[in-house]
Each structure stands twice: as structure tokens, then as C-alpha cells.
Automatic annotation (TrEMBL):
The lineage of its organism: Eukaryota, Metazoa, Chordata, Craniata, Vertebrata. InterPro entries: SCO1/SenC, Thioredoxin-like_sf. This is SCO2 protein. Disulfide bonds join C48-C52. Its main location: mitochondrion. Keywords: Copper, Disulfide bond, Metal-binding. It comes from the Eukaryota. Pfam families: SCO1-SenC. It comes from Eolophus roseicapilla. Belongs to the SCO1/2 family.
């Protein structure tokens, strides 16, 4: 059963592509920069009224709980914007300061962000602008777990609580075997 699961993950090849983006401090970041690290990754946007803040709160709570267990490896939380038009480095710094202190935000050009989203099969589409020029971005609402080899291990929808997210990540960390 485990062998079939591992073959299915290899065949899926989700998240094997690299990305080239900037973090909230302006430093260039690529997926390869995180090789050997556990990642919890969420795609969203800073002007989101409710879904993104709720997801980032759950992600932050799960990361904080996992950090309290010294037997577990470190976990890097990442946020990639789907709205690079409004989400520059300064916007990410302001927005992410309300969540986990190590939550790293990534942005880039529209093309770079589209490429990163495509590597994770994330859907996003900006809606119509209102009279003030404001808009909402419709997008996939999943938190992705990537193992130290950079491959997708699991994803979590909005129905998962922070506690369920924590338990699942903990289980993956304890039972992890590279897909080599």
C-alpha cells in the first residue's frame, strides 16, 4: 500500500517545478532554497476579507504547536500571493505581521506568480473592479505540505482545523521516508 502511494505521488509530480519570487524583504527566493526543509504553503492575497486570514490563522496555530515539540524537525510556513498587482513586499510585510512571526511571504511579477501557481496547480482569477478599483481574487483554497525532498505530501482544505492540520503534519513528519 505504501509503495503504491509513493508511486502515485511520483506520478502526480505536483510541486516539482521551481519558483523564482521575492520575499517581503526583497530577497530572491526559489523553491530550491528550501531543500531539506518541511514547508506549509498557502496561496492567497492580502486584500482577502475572510478566507485567507482564516487559513493563515490555522496555519500559524499549527506551526506554533508543532514548534513546541523539540523532537520534530523545523517547519517553514510560506505565503505566495495570487495578486502581485497589489501585493508588493511592503504589503506582504504589513499583512503577514498579524500571523506567525516566521511566515515568509513571496511575490513577483504577474508572470512569476502565475508560474508558481501553475507549479502547484493553483487556480486564481481576479474579479471585476468596483467603482473604487478594488477587486477580489477567486483562488484555490488549500494549504500544501511539502516534505524535505520538496515533493507534495498532503493538502488541507478550509474544513481542517488547526488541530487537525497539526496532527496530520506531525504524523507525516514521524513517518516520512524520501521518495528516492
Amino acid at each position: 500500500r505504501e509503495r503504491r502511494r509513493r508511486e502515485a505521488l511520483r506520478a502526480l509530480a505536483l510541486a516539482q517545478g521551481d519558483f523564482a519570487l521575492r520575499d517581503q524583504a526583497g530577497a530572491r527566493r526559489a523553491k530550491s532554497d528550501f531543500a531539506g526543509q518541511w514547508l506549509l504553503l498557502y496561496f492567497g492575497f492580502t486584500h482577502c476579507p475572510d478566507v485567507c486570514p482564516a487559513a493563515l490563522q490555522r496555519l500559524s496555530q499549527a506551526v506554533a504547536a508543532l514548534e513546541r515539540d523539540p523532537a520534530l524537525p523545523p517547519l517553514q510556513p510560506l505565503f505566495i500571493t495570487v495578486d502581485p498587482e497589489r501585493d508588493d513586499e511592503a504589503a506582504l510585510r504589513r499583512y503577514l505581521s498579524d500571523f506567525h512571526p516566521r511566515l515568509l511571504g513571496l511575490t513577483g511579477t504577474a508572470e512569476e506568480v502565475r508560474a508558481a501557481a501553475a507549479a502547484f496547480r493553483v487556480y486564481s482569477s481576479a474579479g471585476p473592479r468596483d467603482a473604487d478599483g478594488d477587486y477580489i481574487v477567486d483562488h484555490s483554497v488549500l494549504i500544501y505540505l511539502l516534505g524535505p525532498d520538496g515533493l507534495f505530501l498532503d493538502c488541507y482544505g478550509s474544513s481542517k482545523s488547526a488541530e487537525e492540520l497539526e496532527r496530520s503534519v506531525r504524523r507525516h513528519m514521524r513517518t516520512y521516508q524520501p521518495l528516492q
